[in-house]
Amino acid sequence: MMKTDMQILKKGAGRVASSLLLIGIIIASIFPFLYMFLMSFKSTINAHDLDFSLEKLSLMQYQKIFSMDHFGRYIFNSVFVAAAGVILTVGVCSLAGYAFAKMDFKGNDKIFLFLVMTMVVPSEVIIIPLFLITKGLGWLNTYRALILPLPTAFGVFIMRQAILDVPQDLIDAAKIDGCGNLKIFFKVVLPLVKSSMLALSIFTFVGAWNNFLWPLVASTKTEMKTLPLALSMMKTQFNTDVGLTMACAVINFLPPFIFYVFIQGRFKEGMTLSGMKG
After folding, report:
1. pLDDT tens digit string along 112-143?
2. Domain range for residue 56?
3. Of the candidates 156, 154, 161, 134, which has an alpha carbon nearest to the alpha carbon of residue 145?
4. Are 151 and 87 in contact (CB under 8 A)?
5. Looking at the structure, do residues 191 and 250 belong to the same domain, yes or no?
6. Low-confidence ranges of the chain (pLDDT < 70)
């Protein structure tokens, strides 16, 4: 009995220690966001000013941002580019991943290997060639210039690895029933890789929303700039106001966060469906 009691006490102590550790990690993770949010209601040049009394909090910083010229246009540009980028990336990468995973054609492995090798090349290296191509096509200051470069080899890699796990027996059975490749792709493959598609959607939306360097190069007209560009320009128009910087960070952070929260439930459903496919 004594040994049993000691084992129970040890297990209980271990659970308490694990819970305390997890709580500590959660607090450490949440604190930067809480600091960013609270500081956005202040006007101060001191980043260590932690006096959050009500008389020192105001909406002044947000009023500056929302009163900025063309603010609505900047929001629309960012949302449109990110949403269109998600649709294009998921569509292109899913089709390419299906081709590389389930279709037998000459040079399949070599082409995929070459595609994967491009992932080691930093995106900054291709900025100049991409700019020259875009300029030659007359696409500067257009949505095409901002959206079309978004699909990457990383997305193709994710979708190929997910589609490789789709049982070949299901595809063979669909072929026996007279289904073509496109019908198999839409009716059999996509429902089984929903979680990977949603994960790719999240990565793409966040990357497109936070993209700074390429929109800076491809958008020289004010009406084509995205929100991160506009917020960076605004911060240079005033003194080093920590509150303004944090307010810009909050506004830039919220859309990807809302998108993630919205898609999280569907992501779990996709994970459940993927786990049942075997």
Report:
1. 999 989 888 888 888 999 999 999 999 999 99
2. 2-60
3. 134
4. no
5. yes
6. 1-10, 12, 235-239, 265-278
Mean pLDDT for the chain overall: 84
CATH number for the domain including 74? 1.10.3720.10
Asked if 187 contacts 174 with a C-beta cutoff of 8 angstroms, the reply is yes
Residue among 114, 207, 182, 203 nearest 153 (CA):
114
The torsion defined by the Cα of 213, 67, 80 and 156, in degrees rounded to 10, comes to: 40
3-state secondary structure of 120: helix
Residue where a domain stops, chosen among 60, 81, 110: 60
The model's pTM? 0.83
**pLDDT at site 63:** 87
Considering the domain architecture, whether residues 76 and 105 belong to the same structural domain is answered as: yes
* 121, 47: one domain: no
- On whether the CB atoms of residues 227 and 251 are closer than 8 A, the answer is yes
